[in-house]
């Protein structure tokens, strides 16, 4: 049986453990940490530069994970490209050591279902 205090402290210790992760993120990108959920928001007006910078950022994150004895769960790691309904997807290929991040058209974040064109239909249906 796990002591209730340990259950309470586990998320706290996790946050302390990953507290320096935002320091590897450059000022162009934003990181959102909430409990065990991490989101990185990156933008660029040039699609080629975006692909290059996204892969460099992902490489830095994987290096940080390896240095801190953590493994990135690729099955729970996704890329969501926000776009207008009229614009097409860029189809970015983000990878590290031949592990690719899968693209998704929607994600759940802090209880909200957010999709790539932000119409909120999925969240309203829920």
Question: Which descriptor suits the 3D outline?
Answer: globular
Q: Give, in order, the helices and strands.
A: HEEHEEEEEEH
What is the radius of gyration computed over CA atoms, rounded to a whole number of angstroms?
16 Å
Number of strands: 8
Q: Looking at the chains present, what oligomeric state does this protein adopt?
A: single chain
Percent strand equals 15-25%
Given as residue ranges, the uncertain stretches (5+ residues, pLDDT < 50) are none
Distance between the termini: 35 Å
Give a brief description.
The chain contains 3 helices and 8 strands, in the order αββαββββββα. The chain is an alpha+beta fold.
Would you give an account of this structure?
The chain is α+β, with helices and mostly antiparallel strands. It has helices at residues 4-17, 47-67, 121-125; strands at 30-34, 37-41, 78-80, 95-96, 99-100, 102-104, 106-109, 112-115. The strands form four sheets. The chain has a two-stranded antiparallel sheet. The termini are far apart.
